[in-house]
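I have been asked to look over a protein record a colleague put together. This is what I was given:
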Amino acid sequence: MSRVIRLSRNLEGRDLAVGDVHGHFSRLREALERVAFDPLRDRLLSVGDLVDRGPECEEALDWLAQPWFYAVQGNHEALAISHVRGEWLDYRLYLAAGGGWFLDLGQAEQLRFAEAFEQLPLALEVETALGPVGLLHADCPQLRWRDLLPLLEQSAVPEKIREVCQWSRLRLKEENTRGVDDLRALLVGHTPVPDVKVLGNVWHIDTGGWSKGHFTLLDLATLMPA
């Protein structure tokens, strides 16, 4: 698996980014229809957490099979992997986070999902006319993007690095506007916000489409909602 995927500029259509989905793919389809998403030309980029909490988690594999859909591995995908691989897991936390649907699957189905989730990168880098845009699930543990990518490409990603990429809420908590060098913008999810929140060049785009909010589809060309 490649923990970093780099995408060249989309010269045919739009690149749209979306926050956490959490098993609400019908709502996501409706949001895409509203902006006339064209799968023959456009691409959809996800900051992870495709599963848990919602009623349509099992659709995740169908979405991941689409050539126009790219996602990073969120902490909820990582929880499923930990269960299947026999790693330590706080099952009370996992159930509270919506993982019951996964635990109810048969062993073979669990393995099928875990193997697909293991193929997801931890970071995406997308070229745009105005410079590269990065995607992580939660936050960047380095001040410079170019310092993070070699760490993610190691055979074993340092646990503290992975933890920040998939779990950290510190930037939002501290209202940290330092930003991440070498990127036009970094797009993250993990923590729901009422509206897109920008701290430095870090864009928090999980606007609760899976809950009581709405899905924001951010156009990477303009960094504006589509």
